[in-house]
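Async update (no meeting this week)

Hi team, since we skipped the sync, here's where things stand on the single-chain job. The sequence we agreed to prioritize is pasted below, unchanged from the tracker. I ran it this morning and attached the output directly underneath so nobody has to dig for it. Comments welcome in thread, and please keep replies under the output.
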Amino acid sequence: MGAAMYAARLNLRTVVLGNAGERSAAQDIGGTITLTDVVENYPGFIRLTGEELAQELEAHARSYPLVEIKNTWVNKIDREKSCFSLYLDGEVLQASTLLFATGTRHRELEVPGHDEFRNKGVQYCALCDGPLYKEKVVAVVGGSDSATKEALLLAEHASKVYIIARGPEIKPEPINRPRVEASRKITIITGTNVVRIDGDKRVRAAILDKPHHGERALALDAIFVAVGVIPLSDLARHLGVKTNQRGEILIDRDSRTNVPGIYAAGDVADRSFKQAITGVAEGVVAAYSAFQDLKNNEVCACDDD
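Output:
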């Protein structure tokens, strides 16, 4: 949305494409930030929800007549001379430049019982599903800051929250460590893996690879998975865009990829520090780079053929 806003200010007709359904990382316009309960680190807003931040950015982008937002999936992209052809559901759209801000999807917990109990106690969003487990016992699998924030949110609803991390310690941001350590509801189990999920109609236990208080079966009502993400870069790779070993799109400081006319920003790109503000900034830089490349004839517009 930040990229679309700046592209419009540079007098570039801009279309934002994305499906807010199962095939994308997003539950709504705004991507995974909409799954964040509280945002306290976006300049200009002391505290708001991720969904509210996404709505603010969307409203700003929509205020420009040159911006069009389509809730549709891009099935395939081909390049013909200097023009990209984007095959949508029932439509073909042509564009001179492309910005991939496709984000990521959750990495799944690949253990027996995961698929059987998906959405029956195996969950991926504390903000979405935490209220369903009021006064229940739940666990978060993962040791990152994201896992810590999931646990803090779940502690507002559940009677007990376990953090199960495979590493020797959890790795929250400094501001979140004292919060999780101060919570009487949260217990941290480190150096441990979940090897199986058991239940009947719903999740009843996580089976651990080592005992916790003498038992390998940890009684639970739900398991929230936070074991990392997978970049959604397949469409870009089809066009010859280079990625790193993790599948993140390689970009320079101006958000350019190795393919002229293609740019990337946000969680799909190879930046070590990923925040809402950095993703928006990369998108804005990408819009300016596209403008400069078109202006300097380093990238040709579709109607120049």
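Quick observations from my side:
The chain has two domains: 2-105+230-304, 108-225.
Helices lie at 2-9, 50-62, 126-129, 145-154, 177-182, 234-238, 276-295.
Reply here if anything looks off.
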